[in-house]
Write a structure and sequence with these properties.
Blueprint lengths: L4 E12 L2 E13 L4 E6 L5 H8 L7 E6 L2 E2 L4 H7 E4 L11 H11 L4 H14 L15 H13 L5 E5 L7 H16 L3 E5 L3 H7 L2 E6 L2 E6 L1 H8 L3 E5 L5 H4 L4 E5 L2 E6 L4 H8 L6 E5 L2 H14 L1
Parallel strand pairs: 3-8, 3-9, 6-7, 7-8
Antiparallel strand pairs: 1-2, 1-4, 4-5, 9-10, 11-13, 11-14, 12-13
Helix pairs in contact: 3-4, 3-5, 8-11
Bound molecules: adenosine-5'-triphosphate and magnesium ion.
Length: 304
C-alpha cells in the first residue's frame, strides 16, 4: 500500500512583474498512515500554497504530491474525486442557506436525493447548526459562514481532507464541535491535513506535526518527538524581567507576551528559583508545550 501522502521536493515562487517570492523551497514530508497531520508555521511560511498545490488548484514549479500513490500533477481529476477542502478565506454563496449548501454540494458530487438529504441532516446535527440552517448566508455572522463552509467540506466522504485554518473565528463551543467531527473522520481511517495557528488545537488533534518555515520542513514528529528535540522538559515563566546572564547557564531564555520564559530541565528548577529569588514577581512552572517548540524552532524568524 502506498503512503497516504508523500510530498516530494515541492518548489513554488510567485512572480509579479520583476518581483519573485519563494513560497515553497523543496518542501517535503510524508504521512505513512491515515491520521491527523498538522502543518504549523508563521504567516507566509507556505502552508496555503502547499494546500492549493495538493488540491490541484495551483501548479508547482517543480516537485509533486502523491495521495495514496496518485500524483496530483498527473491525475488531477482522480485526485479531486478523493479529496475535500476547507480553503482559507472561503466564502459561502449569499443567497443560499447552510442546508442548501450541503445538499446541493452532495448532489453535485453525485449522491442521490435521498442520500444527500440524509448526509445533510447528519452534518447539520453533528455541527449543531440547526438554528440557522435555513437562513440565507448573506444574513449570517462570520463564524456561522465559516461553519457553513465546514459543513459542506466535512460532509464529503473523502480519503484526504485539507483543512486550512478551519476553525478561524469560531467560538470555543463551535470549535470543539468541529474537533469532534475531525476526530470522527480520523476514526474512519481517513487522512486529515490541518493547518492552524491555534496551538492548543494542534496539540489536542494532531497525531503528527510538521513545522514549516520559509517554505521548508523544519521538523516532523509527534508532539512528544518535537518536545524531546527541544532538549528541555520544563518551562519557567517570569512575570518580571530576569537578568539573562544569571540564568543563561541553566537553560534558554525566550521572550513571551507575558514576560520571559526559561526553557530548562526539571532538575534545574530549584537552582533557578534560588538564583532568581522566589520573590521575583509571579513565577509559573510547567512542562514545555507546543508553543515553546514552535517559538524555538521558527524563532530565528522573529530575530530577523
Ligand atoms: N498570489 C500570490 N502572489 C504573490 N505572492 C503570494 C501569493 N500568495 C502567497 N504569496 C506569498 O507566498 C508566501 C507563502 O504564502 P502562503 O499563503 O502560502 O502562506 P501561509 O503559510 O498560508 O500563511 P498564513 O499563515 O498567513 O495563512 C508568502 O510570502 C506570500 O506573501
Ligand atoms: Mg495560509
Amino acid at each position: 500500500m502506498p503512503d497516504p501522502i508523500v510530498v516530494s521536493e515541492l518548489s513554488k515562487s510567485y512572480v509579479n512583474g520583476s518581483r519573485s517570492t519563494v513560497a515553497l523551497d523543496s518542501f517535503s514530508f510524508r504521512g505513512n498512515r491515515n491520521m491527523i497531520l498538522s502543518l504549523l508555521g508563521r504567516n507566509g511560511s507556505g502552508k496555503t500554497t502547499f494546500a492549493k498545490i495538493a488540491t490541484t488548484q495551483l501548479m508547482p514549479d517543480s516537485g509533486d504530491v502523491y495521495l495514496n500513490g496518485t500524483s496530483v500533477i498527473d491525475e488531477p481529476e482522480e485526485i479531486r474525486a478523493t479529496i475535500s477542502l476547507v480553503p482559507q478565506e472561503g466564502r459561502p454563496f449569499g443567497h443560499l442557506t447552510p442546508r442548501e449548501h450541503v445538499y446541493y454540494y452532495q448532489r453535485m458530487i453525485g449522491e442521490t436525493r435521498e442520500k444527500a438529504s440524509t448526509i445533510t441532516e447528519m452534518i447539520i446535527e453533528e455541527l449543531d447548526i440547526e438554528s440557522f440552517q435555513n437562513t440565507q448566508c448573506v444574513n449570517l455572522s462570520g463564524g456561522q459562514k465559516q461553519t457553513t463552509m465546514l459543513a459542506m467540506a466535512l460532509s464529503k466522504d473523502a480519503e484526504t481532507y485539507f483543512l486550512d485554518e478551519p476553525t478561524i473565528g469560531l467560538d470555543v463551543i463551535t470549535r470543539k464541535r468541529v474537533w469532534e467531527v475531525i476526530e470522527r473522520i480520523r476514526r474512519e481511517r481517513k487522512m486529515v491535513i490541518l493547518t492552524t495557528h491555534y496551538l492548543d488545537e494542534a496539540s489536542v488533534l494532531s497525531d503528527e506535526i510538521c513545522i514549516v518555515s520559509h517554505g521548508r520542513l523544519v521538523s516532523q514528529g509527534t508532539l512528544n518527538d518535537l518536545r524531546s528535540r527541544l532538549g528541555h522538559d520544563t518551562r519557567i515563566r517570569f512575570s518580571t524581567r530576569v537578568d539573562e546572564k544569571i540564568v543563561s547557564s541553566m537553560g534558554t531564555l525566550v521572550d513571551d507576551e507575558k514576560g520571559q520564559i526559561l526553557l530548562t530541565e526539571s532538575g534545574n528548577v530549584e537552582e533557578v528559583l534560588k538564583t532568581v529569588g522566589y520573590m521575583n514577581g509571579r513565577i509559573e512552572i510547567g512542562p514545555v508545550g507546543l508553543d515553546d517548540v514552535f517559538v524555538s524552532m521558527v524563532g530565528e524568524d522573529i530575530d530577523e
